[in-house]
Amino acid sequence: MDHTIVIFGASGDLTSRKLIPALYNLMRSGSLPGLTRIIGYSRTPMSDDAWRASLRETTAKHAGGFDEAAWKTFAETVHYQPGDIGSAEDFAGLKQRLDSLEGGVESSRVYYLATAPQFYPPVVAALGSLGMADETAGPRRIVVEKPFGTDLATAEALNAQIHTVFRESQVYRIDHYLGKESVQNILALRFANTIFEPVWNRRYIDHVQITVAEEVPVGRRAAYYETSGVLRDMFQNHLLQLLMVSAMEAPSRFNARAVRNEKVKVLEAIRPLNPGDVATAGVRGQYRGYLAEPGVAPQSRTATFGAIRLEIDNWRWQGVPFYLRSGKAMSCRTTQIVIGFRQPPLELFSNGMRPGNREANRLVIQIQPAEGIQLHFHTKVPGAGMRLRMTDLEFSYSREFHGRLPEAYEPLLLDVMNGDASLFARSDEVEKSWEIIDPFVRAWSSAEMPPVDLYEPGDWGPRSSFDWMASQGRSWFDACPVLT
Ligand code: BG6
After folding, report:
1. What are the beta bridge partners of residue 41?
2. 100-127 pLDDT, tens per residue?
3. Which pTM value belongs to this model?
4. Whether residue 310 sits in one domain with residue 191
5. Which entry of 176, 238, 378, 402 is annotated as an active-site residue?
6. Domain, as residue range, for 202
7. Which residue in 20, 43, 358, 450 has the fewest CB atoms around it within 10 Å?
8. Atom of ligand 1 nearest to the CA of 176
9. Is the same domain home to 247 and 121?
């Protein structure tokens, strides 16, 4: 079957930095199924060739390797249709163009919403009014980027509006974190091996830390960031996705329904917080200098750093806190999941050390920048006496598998084309995520909250974040990438 990918928001950043380079790489590696054509739609008047020329520049920059001959072949499949999202006439022009490009041959269509979120409803409505979600001439799928709403109510409204035109099985809510190799590998680690599962629970695990630290500041994105802050930008989507894959039960089958059922169960088991408890279930921070970023309000209390604690009320995780933390302008770029194990029941080799003072075992799953896993365990230091030191066993993707790892968008785009929604968020998953994050958003923006804690760019967040962990008898695992 042929495939047509229609990109709304064709002249935007996402298209040039991520989508087109991903499609180009898929074509180069021979992974695109059948004949795949791409058609961009946006307001800028441009010819096919002008769009191709501008994409050539950006793809050469972002694709991680560029080959002129491959680009030429790829560019032939790329088309452009200028048009306004608000114009019924322009949309009819798009429909005609698609029909003519497809030439009556059965074709699957992917409608990719790479526009600003306020354009999602009008695009969906226009597709609906022209019958473009109808599947008699081949599958019709729609990809929706984040942000999917700004809270539970807006997410519900967006879901409802999309469902007036598309069935849930046609909707692919993308979270690029799920396309990262090492995130998918968590499923392999947990469910393709027997040695981890027996210890992957409250009997052996003390707590879990999920950190997405970014070195970059907010920079020029203040217009968006001021309304989003770290909770909406990172927690509702990426961090909760990492939590779900770390905490879910084994699905009965590896298919979209079973996988997503298990993920949603995790969210359902997260203990709802009383409004009064939200303030102590997390800490927020803002890097010094944020107020000077262009477009930031002079008194802005927007959190650029957040850490929250969630409890999962089920048999596996009862009593095991999940700490989620993310921030901009932090020490380094690293995304890691740290499984913190319990202390051994008996301290045999204390050497005068206070009980429980030795670091416990850890499994560090590093998602980026380098991908891999480290298991931290104690080893006897050679020589007299039982002196111990933390050592590690390490698995590194780059050492084990040579060559380029696919960018997150590559497998996800292929999945959409193949109709596999396992790695996409279902409507109930998105709504549940907002239900969990909304109370924090409300509490953190309430006038009763004390001023946001400041941290120096290059730190691991504000002092209060360390104190908060210490008050719970724990400490953050603050290591810049343990794997390089
Ligand atoms: C995006 C956020 O969803 O994810 C950005 O809007 C953030 O603020 C980015 O920088 C992080 O993605 P990655 O893949 O670089 O970790």
Report:
1. 8, 81
2. 999 999 999 999 999 999 999 999 999 9
3. 0.96
4. yes
5. 238
6. 178-403+417-470
7. 450
8. 14
9. no
